[in-house]
Specification:
By secondary structure, the chain is mainly α. Helices cover 72% and strands 0% of the residues. The protein contains seven helices and no strands. α4 packs parallel to α7.
Amino acid sequence: MCNQDCNQGRSCNCGKPAAAWQWIIITLVAFWLTVFCTFKVFAAPSLEDVATSTDTYALCKTMDVASTAYLIDHGLAVEANPIVKPLIANGYVPLVLVSFGLWWVLNKLNNKPVTAVTNTLTCGIAIHNLTLIP
């Protein structure tokens, strides 16, 4: 299916292994964010605090990026998001940087409703991706 997608002008990252240094960066960032944010998210006193926390965004976005990279590099999925597709055309570092930038903006905005909506979307996508991993 991946070869057919490439021949039809769709994403050709399918089945292409990422460079070793990209996996090292993604793994280190994922590990750090997971450990750091998990402690903060589970220490939150209420569901509202979890839903409006930028730490929740960081945790879910880490899982989203890591699962997206895994699924695409193992030929299990093709990126469907037209905004993300050009970001991952030459690796995952641009996606990680944009994700970090969005986290920074959420911190600066300090707008709980915006953060709650962003967290809901990001965590939903991460959960969907994780269900696709065999």
